[in-house]
Design a protein that fits this description.
The strands form two sheets. Strands 1-10-7-4-2-3 form a six-stranded parallel beta sheet, with helices on both faces. A four-stranded mixed beta sheet has the order 8-5-6-9. It has 366 residues and is α/β, with parallel strands linked by helices. It is globular and about 55 Å long. Strand 5 and strand 6 form a beta hairpin. The two termini are 28 Å apart.
Length: 366
Amino acid sequence: MQLDNANFQKNMRRFGRGFAEKRAAAVAQIDIFEDLREAAKNIRNRGLENLDAYLIKFEEMAKARGTTVHWAETAQDVNRIVIEIAQANGVKKIVKSKSMVSEESGLNHALEKVGIQSIETDLGEYIVQLAKEPPSHLIAPAIHKSKEDVAELFQQHHNLPYKLDIPALTKEARQILRPHFLSADMGISGGNFLIAETGSVALVTNEGNGRMVTTVPKIHVAITGIEKVLPTLDDFSTIMRLLPRSATGQAISNYVTVLTGTKGKDDIDGPEQSHVILVDSGRTAMLGTEMQEALRCIRCGACMNHCPVYQNIGGHSYGWVYPGPIGAVLTPNYVGLENALDLPQAATLCNACGVVCPVKIPLPDL
């Protein structure tokens, strides 16, 4: 169906080329980029090979700083824990920053069923929420939408005049979302990484919504997979030399935030309650197997930005949360091969994904 959609094909070609070209330019700025890839691979391997110890260390340090740590074995556990926190605190409205793990659990739908409003505030996530669609890319959720598509959605849902000027559209989204930040009872975010030595959650974003969600509401809940743990802040700094360059072609993202514990007595902002939900949901089953290498993924999206299959069929064709080459590996492992039989076949084995992966995941082999 998508192969015959001229508008979709135009959108994908425009964005796909842009990401690949910007990555190439950003990588060329670093003479030791391949050395950094090897270092990052080793950092991620060290975290996975000692995952239990680093998770226990993270929990210990996070608790010492006032954070409550929850363990979720399944996606259903994620929803249950969030709802329990919300209902115990009388939460009626939640603002969310981008969280792929919450997409795994269908959190927004679960919250809606119990009468809690959940509003996506990342611009791309907000657009696909209005369209009642899942994200189609790890870092650019609405990559498949044109400005005309967005203009129609905004006119329909905002009851404001139709406009095609992109700055005007983003200003309109800001005007609609800003009151929600100030009136929400809870903020939910993902977590790009967990820092074991400090008990911190690290967020890497290009929009200020991440900081609004994590500091303005009285309650902050971070939801992230257990495989995201890094031993030290030094390890995080090494990974950060690779992540934005691989994702969007930037030397550094606009916002790099390290969240540690609850609001202190001298702090002017920050949550009164801090929660971290550590999610398994199929991850430990991959440890110690030939599939463990896929858990190194840092969710940059480079593999799909260079994948000829993804660029032609888009993320929704992969049928679940994770599209592209990494989705063809993770989805069968997370939800069962019987539920994703076609995905491993959706590859040319050209190895473009393996060449650009910043942590050297051998995706065609997997």
